[in-house]
């Protein structure tokens, strides 16, 4: 495994695997623009990576993704670079934990999708309500998820980084340049 290559693991509250992205490259902070994302921002890029689901099924992503993680935020954001623009898939989740070349977070069901045209949808609210009971989410987790959702919605409405298509495209381009330098 390349020294900048990571596996991203999404687990459920009980520790079971939810989903795993097998090949993601860490973009060094020195490659990020000084735009207020913060030094602690982790940016990982994937492009046609293998994804393993909890039931063992496998598939490959069809478009590049630029994933943003923070050690103190209860959400993560994936900018999806499509042929006609950038959309965003946001997971309400625990802050990530790192171990070796693995980054793991607990998925707390709620998702926010921002379409290329700016339309915002909150998804899986019923799943969150069911799993709150099923997994007995502690009140502290429920509070952090609620706060994370509020912070995320503010970030989206104010178009703060990374909700700027140019930023996702810049990160992806920087990764492509670094990758081609490694192979030349």
For this entry, give a set of tags.
single chain; 184 residues; 3 helices; globular
Strand order of the largest sheet: 1-2-3-6-7-8-10
Gyration radius from CA atoms, angstroms: 16 Å
The rough form would be described as: globular
Structural class: alpha+beta
**Oligomeric state of the chains in view:** single chain
Portion in strands = 35-45%
For the biggest sheet, the summary is: 7 strands, mixed, barrel
What does this structure look like?
With 184 residues, the protein is α+β, with helices and mostly antiparallel strands. The protein has three helices and eleven strands, in the order βββββββββββααα. A seven-stranded mixed beta barrel has the order 1-2-3-6-7-8-10. The longest helix is centred in the C-terminal third of the chain and has 19 residues. The protein is globular and about 55 Å long. The two termini are 19 Å apart.
Quick overview:
With 184 residues, the protein is of the alpha+beta class.
Question: Can you lay out the helices and strands and say which pair or pack?
Answer:
Blueprint: E1 5-11, E2 17-27, E3 42-46, E4 50-53, E5 58-60, E6 65-69, E7 75-82, E8 85-93, E9 97-99, E10 102-114, E11 120-123, H1 125-134, H2 139-157, H3 165-182
């Amino acid at each position: 495994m390349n020294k900048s290559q990571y596996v991203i693991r999404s687990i459920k509250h009980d520790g079971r695997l939810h989903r795993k992205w097998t090949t993601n490259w860490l973009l060094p902070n020195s490659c990020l623009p000084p735009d207020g994302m913060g030094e602690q921002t982790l940016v990982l890029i994937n492009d046609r990576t293998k994804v393993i689901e909890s039931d063992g099924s496998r598939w490959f992503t069809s478009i590049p993704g630029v994933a943003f993680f923070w050690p103190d935020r209860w959400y993560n954001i994936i900018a999806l670079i499509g042929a006609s623009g950038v959309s965003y898939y946001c997971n309400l989740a625990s802050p990530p934990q790192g171990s070796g070349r693995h980054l793991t977070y607990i998925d707390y069901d709620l998702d926010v999708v921002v379409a290329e045209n700016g339309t915002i949808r909150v998804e899986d609210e019923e799943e969150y309500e069911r799993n709150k009971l099923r997994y007995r989410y502690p009140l502290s987790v429920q509070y952090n998820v609620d706060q994370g959702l509020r912070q995320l919605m503010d970030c989206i409405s104010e178009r703060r980084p990374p909700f700027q298509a140019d930023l996702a495209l810049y990160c992806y381009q920087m990764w492509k340049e670094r990758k081609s330098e490694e192979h030349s």
